[in-house]
Design a protein that fits this description.
This protein is of the alpha/beta class. Helices cover 42% and strands 14% of the residues. It contains 21 helices and 15 strands. A 7-stranded mixed sheet has the order 8-7-10-11-14-9-15. Helix 16 runs antiparallel to helix 19 and helix 16 runs parallel beside helix 20.
Length: 581
Amino acid sequence: MESNQTYPTVTGPLSPSETAMLEVLVPGYGFISRILMSYLNIDINAYIQLVVAMAVFAASFRYIYNQASARFSQYFVSRAEIRLDDEIFNYLMYWISRQSHMKQTNRFVAGIKSNGYWSDDEESDAGDENEWDKLDDDGKLASFDECWEKVLSRDKYKTLRFTPAQGCHYFWYRNRPLMLERQRQEGSARWVLNNERLYLSCFGRDPTILKMLLAEAQQAYVERDGNLTVIYRGQRPCATSPYDWYRGMARLPRPLSTVILDQEQKQSFIDDIKEYLHPRTRRWYSNRGIPYRRGYLFHGPPGTGKTSLCFAAAGLLGLKLYLLNLNSTALDEDGLASLFAVLPRRCIVLLEDIDAAGITNTRGKTIVSTPEPTIDEIIPGEADGEADATVVPDASAKGGVTLSGLLNVIDGVAASEGRILVMTTNHADKLDPALLRPGRVDMTINFGYTSEADIKEMFISIYNTTKNDIRRAKRPRTASNGSAKSSAKSITGERRNSEDSQVGDKEDPLQDALQSHQSRISRLADEFAAIVPSGELTAAEIQGYLLNHKDIPEVAIQGAPEWMQSTLEKKRAREEKEKFS
């Protein structure tokens, strides 16, 4: 018996069966092998074993690497997931886009379109104000042509905005290496919104550094607004998306003093809100089993300042303002309930023109679709629109919100608590009594036509000098007696930007001239109020006329009789037409 045996080595061509098997596994194998043998004299069969071994090794290495990486990430890496439908997504994107390492990355998304973390309200009018406030050496304001040329040149180019591209981005934060991963979520119902998620990771099982970063991002995002009033709007971006609150804009708060309303009524409204928002009030309600909710109804003719008061109250108290339009059939009762369910505890919800939304004396009626007004058309509410909505008698019609559904959301068992509800209407008599009962409407404020005191207040507010008007001026230019043109050059009258904006610094060398100007404006206000009758015109009508002569109060007084007569005739003609129609 032989002790040594030799085994044949396969170096020649493969058998037909083996070649056929390779042809099945690797389509085109036979053709490729013949080409290599004919032109390069390379027998690919001699390397089959090596190729298979390398393939097996690569697959095994990939599997082992993925498993090891998954286990390492599970036990030695902390990870935070941020979803698009949460506001913290905007916080992090706003923060990360302003970091120095983001400016150095070579993979980014460039755009000019506004969204949740890049909004047009960031591009405030501060740049425009700086252009107009530039002074020459002689103390004169820069000319219109000079400023306008610079403004137009700047407005031609929209701001470029850069955010991290999809994939992994590494950076250092407080001497710790972190990784930001941006992923698109495929197969989502919100694919049209570019649905995506962010993943923030760090080494170690302690996620404190990630929480610190997110807290800093939130602080930076919130501080961007400063004392601005943030406005949200209830809507859905597309037909497949649910209704949610989306940030609309942030605007400078409107001083309460600029709202033309009886001072006692204004103060009573503000005092009532402050009492409601006091921490002890919530505890008082809870101890007695009373739902912690507060509702207000503002009613009166269009243009009397209903929306303006709501906006001013939000700015005064630092509350966010949530606007909701009930005129769309796309908003059903489930969507309305979900919107109210996610409201923060302390906020103001504004329902504009509630009577126009089909909330009439019949609960079963359903509102029909009407065009939704934009936020720019509503805030700051210089004029409350008057509209008449058509209702559909069939309560089972598709879409829309019934009065019963609205009542359940406002004061039902599952209704949210802590929010302030403000409803405005031009016709309070059209509302169902069930909507007006205590617990749903706790205070009603009637907005009427302007009184003599209101007219004087508006005139002084528009033509009086504020600190912002002269903060850059070197010296005032006093007006000559009876010269309207000189008056226009000396004082630029604008709406007050803050309640303490009246100039009253006793140490200011301009004080004497300013006091003289204020006395003159007060005297002219008396003349204007004597011409315009009280109880006939709205604040919006008077303000619109005065703005046409915002720099020349004398001219406004001279043209007041003709304007007043024309306005009253038009109003009477419109009333006669409505009476016979």
